[in-house]
Amino acid sequence: MTDSAEASSRPRVVLGVGGGIAAYKACEVLRRLTESGHSVRVVPTDGALKFVGAATFEALSGQPVHTGVFSDVPSVPHVKLGQDADLVVVAPTTANLLAKAAHGLADDLLTNTLLTARCPVLLVPAMHTEMWEHPATRANVALLRSRGVVVAEPASGRLTGKDTGKGRLPEPAEIAELARLLLERPDALPRDMEGLHVAVSAGGTREPLDPVRFLGNRSSGRQGFALARVAAQRGARVTLVAAHTADLVPPAGVEVQRVGTAAELREAMHRVAQDARVVVMAAAVADFRPAALAEHKIKKTDRDPDPVRLTRNADILAELVEARRAGQVVVGFAAETGDGETDVLDYGRAKLERKGCDWLVVNAVGDGKAFEVEDNAGWLLSSAGAETPLPHGSKARLASAVWDAVVPACGV
């Protein structure tokens, strides 16, 4: 395949960059998109180039950078860029850009591209809290979402100067994940979960053996974080109870509660489930813990070590099912391996019947599957007998498929 043919076969992404201080983070978004195989054309505003120079974007993308409609006129970029794109991402999207996009203003190359795009459009806001909460901005966001534009929820945290609050640009890794999801499934982020409170657990618990060692598992927490992230971007209020995770950035718009052991996770999930409409147990909870915790580090000696006695942890999923309120939906996860007599799906069916939850996501694990990887696959089993394959793809894509099935059961 020639270089030009290879370039034309790659997903084509337009990365718009608004004129806010968060424009510097667009460089990392660009790097992530190009390194994952996308052809990216950066279209900044004049204001963005006051924060990051055109040469930086050109070097990272390998493509020219223009801001006006009178550059490279013969190729008609103000029309062609939007027509040819598979996805348009604008990060950061300032309050000014949101207003222009909502009202169809087209006074530079980026706003013209937004008018001509017929692909998914992801706008990622970044502004001060007062600007994000202003009635004009809220009306512009609602108008854009009503037209099918994905306006992401901003993060909370440090803003310009000493200010903190909602309006911070989500981290580049999260923006890149949302971009990949929309390329995989353009309809993956409808605003169909507004008014729902969902509680999600994620990560692997760690059960201390002594002050240094613990019993744990290989869960990275990525699937639980993806479930929380997608739910928040679909409009839900999300509480994420996170055990050990692989240095994952908390999803934008999500309340995160950190825990360590199975006992701590159990307490937190029972507490947050009291007012959640949907409870998702995606955490990998240790089935056992050491019966006794050594006060000091267990030393290596010439004699064989004493056996480690284990005691069983509570079955949190079964307890949540037993305690669920009328109308509450409980979703479980099952990481399974087959053996010579029973396959993964059969083990999943048996677990669904045993636990009594409404839905069960079954993952085959081992050999680079499910744990410590970015992608996932499996099956979604329902208590009503439905079995839906979950094709291989990003964990955000699997999360969106789970929410597609669960949301109608909530009656929203």
From TrEMBL:
HAMAP family named among the record's database cross-references: CoaBC
Lineage: Bacteria, Bacillati, Actinomycetota, Actinomycetes, Pseudonocardiales
EC numbers for this chain: 4.1.1.36, 6.3.2.5
A GO molecular function held by the record: phosphopantothenoylcysteine decarboxylase activity
Residue ranges occupied by any DNA/pantothenate metabolism flavoprotein C-terminal domain in the UniProt entry: 193-407
Chain spans, region Phosphopantothenoylcysteine decarboxylase: 1-197
Recorded GO CC terms: phosphopantothenoylcysteine decarboxylase complex
Gene: coaBC
Keyword Metal-binding annotated: yes
Catalysis: reaction(s): (R)-4'-phosphopantothenate + L-cysteine + CTP = N-[(R)-4-phosphopantothenoyl]-L-cysteine + CMP + diphosphate + H(+); N-[(R)-4-phosphopantothenoyl]-L-cysteine + H(+) = (R)-4'-phosphopantetheine + CO2
Cofactor: Mg(2+); FMN
Swiss-Prot/TrEMBL GO biological process terms: coenzyme A biosynthetic process; pantothenate catabolic process
Pathway: Cofactor biosynthesis; coenzyme A biosynthesis; CoA from (R)-pantothenate: step 3/5; Cofactor biosynthesis; coenzyme A biosynthesis; CoA from (R)-pantothenate: step 2/5
Binding site for CTP: D287, K297, F333, K351, K355
Name the record gives this protein: Coenzyme A biosynthesis bifunctional protein CoaBC
Protein purpose: Catalyzes two sequential steps in the biosynthesis of coenzyme A. In the first step cysteine is conjugated to 4'-phosphopantothenate to form 4-phosphopantothenoylcysteine. In the second step the latter compound is decarboxylated to form 4'-phosphopantotheine.
Family affiliation: In the N-terminal section; belongs to the HFCD (homo-oligomeric flavin containing Cys decarboxylase) superfamily.
Residue ranges, annotated region (Phosphopantothenate--cysteine ligase): 198-412
